[in-house]
Write a structure and sequence with these properties.
By secondary structure, the protein is of the alpha+beta class. Helices cover about 30% and strands about 30% of the residues.
Length: about 220
């Protein structure tokens, strides 16, 4: 069995997410030009390689472990119907992300918690990589060690990123330029992507499945 050190060396970031339906994709794309964005944009969703999404679980593991997680996802998502989410307001994270606030609805939380429960035991990297650990609090590092995602479970904040810039202060300034947003959205597809860098410019899709509850499921 490989050591965690060797697993880390060839490991990837792995993101499980609800793919944005067309109307939400268009909303985010139409909000971005309303911002006076700097040249050094950290993260700009809305392309094939960087799609608009709502993250359900994000971790770091070898491709072998990720393949096991994808297999587990295939066995899980058939139990879920499309999930309606109320989106209202704009928020900012301390890392400079500007996002649409999403309601912590019961179906969304249920899906998130089940994915964490099923996927976290399959990962083969227990400690966060150094580039991520430097941005986490002690409590967040402990949560990564426990379940593989520092923002999971009680600390899950459902959101859809509009853009990320290089500072919280700049994000707060830009967020004030956006109009009020209030919309209900039905997420109908779950997806997963992988990448190597903490600040991805492009990603690789490794899983997609429509949320359609199977008969008798």
């Amino acid at each position: 069995m490989r050591s965690e050190k060797s697993a880390r060396h060839d490991s990837l970031y792995f993101n499980v997410e609800l793919a944005a339906p067309p109307e939400l994709h268009d909303l985010v794309i139409n909000l971005q030009p309303k911002l006076n964005l700097p040249e050094n944009v950290y993260y700009l969703p809305g392309t094939v390689l960087c799609p608009v999404h709502l993250t359900l679980y994000s971790t770091f593991s070898s491709r072998k472990a990720i393949d096991l997680m994808i297999g587990a996802l295939k066995q899980t998502v058939g139990k879920y119907e499309p999930i309606w989410v109320k989106i209202e307001g704009i928020g900012c994270f301390v890392d400079g992300s500007i996002y649409l606030k999403c309601e912590r609805s019961a179906p969304l939380i249920m899906l998130h918690e089940e994915i964490v429960r099923i996927l976290s035991p399959l990962r083969d990297v227990i400690h966060p990589p150094s580039e991520l650990a430097g941005e986490l609090t002690r409590e967040q590092i402990e949560r990564f060690i426990e379940v593989g995602d520092p923002f999971a479970l009680d600390h899950f904040v459902p959101h859809v990123t509009i853009v990320s810039v290089d500072s919280y202060e700049k994000a707060m300034q830009l967020a004030g330029e956006l109009p009020r947003v209030k919309v209900d959205v039905a997420f109908q597809e779950i997806a997963a992507r992988i990448w190597r860098s903490l600040s991805p410019k492009s990603t690789t899709a490794v899983f997609k499945s429509l949320l359609r509850k199977a008969p008798g499921g």
